[in-house]
Amino acid sequence: MSREVLSSVVMPIAGEDDVVLVRRRVRDLAQAQGFDAFATAAVTTAASELARNALVHGKGGRATVRELNEDGRAGLSIQFQDQGPGIADLERALAGGYSTARSLGLGLSGARRLVDEFDIDSAPGRGTMASITKWKRLY
Amino acid sequence: MNRETRTPLKLDDAELRSRRAYFEINDEDLERLASLRAFGQTHLDDIIESFYRFILEHHESRVFFADDTSVQRVKRLQKEYFLGLFSGVLDVRYVENRLRVGATHERIGMPLRIYLGAYALYLRLLLVKLGEEYEPSLAGMHFRSVQKLVYFDMSLAVDTYIASYVETLGRHQAAIRELSTPCIRVYDRVLLLPLVGTIDTQRAQQIMETVLVRVADEQARVVIVDIAGVPVVDTKVADHLLKTTAALRLIGAESILTGISPHVARTIVQLGVDISAMYTKSRLADGIELALSIVGKRITQVAP
Amino acid sequence: MKGQGSIPILRVGSTLLATVHVELYDTVAEAFQQDVLLAIERTGAVGLIVDISGLETVDSYVARVLADTGRMARLMGADTVLCGMRPEVAATLIRMGYAMEGVKTALNVDDGLARLGASTGPLGKGRPA
Ligand SMILES: Nc1ncnc2c1ncn2[C@@H]1O[C@H](COP(=O)(O)OP(=O)(O)OP(=O)(O)O)[C@@H](O)[C@H]1O
Ligand SMILES: [Mg+2]
What we know:
Radius of gyration of chain B: 31 Å
Oligomer: heterotrimer
Strand content of chain B: 5-15%
Shape of chain A: globular
Structural class of chain B: alpha/beta
CATH architecture of the largest domain in chain B: Orthogonal Bundle
CATH class of the largest domain in chain B: Mainly Alpha
Shape of chain B: elongated
Largest sheet of chain B: 5 strands, mixed
Order of helices and strands of chain A: EHHEEHHEE
Strand order of the largest sheet of chain A: 1-2-3-5-4
CATH superfamily of chain A: Histidine kinase-like ATPase, C-terminal domain
Mean pLDDT of chain B: 88
Low-confidence stretches of chain B: none
Radius of gyration of chain A: 14 Å
CATH architecture of chain A: 2-Layer Sandwich
Order of helices and strands of chain B: HHHHHHHHEEHEHEHEH
Number of domains of chain B: 2
CATH topology of chain A: Heat Shock Protein 90
Strand order of the largest sheet of chain B: 1-2-3-4-5
Mean pLDDT of chain A: 93
Number of strands of chain B: 5
Number of helices of chain A: 4
Largest interface: A-C, 27 and 21 residues
Bound molecules: adenosine-5'-triphosphate, magnesium ion
Low-confidence stretches of chain A: none
Structural class of chain A: alpha+beta
Largest sheet of chain A: 5 strands, antiparallel
């Protein structure tokens, strides 16, 4: 099993336009890699949620978008990093339905359900790192 | 030999470079191999003969070379392969040739172990010939270069086999998927989805996607989901059905659940699953009637 | 009819038809919401059709704007139908746990108009004087 990174681009998330750019890039790459419509929508939406979180809650940060290949299987991974306040109660935030922004609080839990791999590291004062990976379906 | 043999795998420049680096094949190796071309030519026939003697001696490999013509054909291909070791070039075309050889063997159903055994034999034969021809330290260096390239070739063969297995698996899964989600058009803008067998999370997702696409394609107003053929309806299955209904509602279609047996009705209530969001009917016929009424049609009795 | 935003809002009898064909990000979404509500106020429309068949991605933010717009329009007397959501968008929203309960939906604009039914007649019909 070898996981190769075919390309890697760092994108800033400083304003709402950047969220749109990240989303667009993820969608374009997913399509270019031959993802089906459902997988494309899933990874694009998950990326959109995390980018927005980095902007709104994390006070801005950056996204690293990577094209992957694992033994011939195409994949896409996006890592979001911000230096914001971090998430105090990670478990609760991941469970869904919890929001400090009087929203529905479905972003984190939803994003997690939409992708194949989900990683998050956050603590008060240390900022937040969230990373998602989606693989092209084999059938 | 069919020149068009499809290789399920592609290797681009970057991948080729990194693989070359991993096998530590440097320009020196390639030059050395090129300088051995005359050596290769001299021993070509001899080595190929030994090679085929070995293959025909062993039952596992013999079965793949049943008739004489196939032996002749493969012999020619093997000669090409063997001389390719001494070409001194390792580019995308080289790789494509190697992949094609691998794909050919995979296609005739030769197991990977038999194929790998042949590489090992090549190396043994070459080691002997090199030892006869060169003084030990030089023979050793030559052999190292040959070995690097043969191992590189083996990695390509393994990858070809894997890629082809994955492709086959994918095809089978696609076929199963199609069979397991038959979506029947029973009337204009009315679809019937008769579910049969167990529904796990993966299948539930497939069902949802297939139905959504069909509904959008046909602009169906109603989907009748018949679960008479689903042996177990637990909380999970009920939840999947509810999700499918919710997704259908989002794109603008109604769903009707039919084929609910007394047993399933009891389970659903005892589990406390709320399916009040769905239209439900015990019999498929009633479901069809309800579906038709949604699209503004009615079944009526006519005089005999 | 054109407001601040880039989303055209068309009047068909007593119904407004908005076709969302651009990515709905924050400013566009807010302008859209504002334009729709002003148009309802100005025309006294009793129905609102929002055609989202051109939307490829709907995240929780956009979904909320769409659902909220419908609720606000409803408060102003315009029944709202969301039309033409794509299969992959629906599947994604459901997987995220966002079922948009209470929002009326239709496969396409024709079906949406049919769902609004009587309210597509001459302007003002069915509205208290
Ligand atoms: N990058 C981040 N930095 C700091 N806090 C975060 C970050 N991401 C999420 N959170 C916290 O986790 C909570 C849940 O996030 P989630 O995305 O699920 O909901 P939301 O953003 O509040 O609402 P929604 O995404 O549904 O509009 C947020 O309210 C916030 O408190
Ligand atoms: Mg969020």
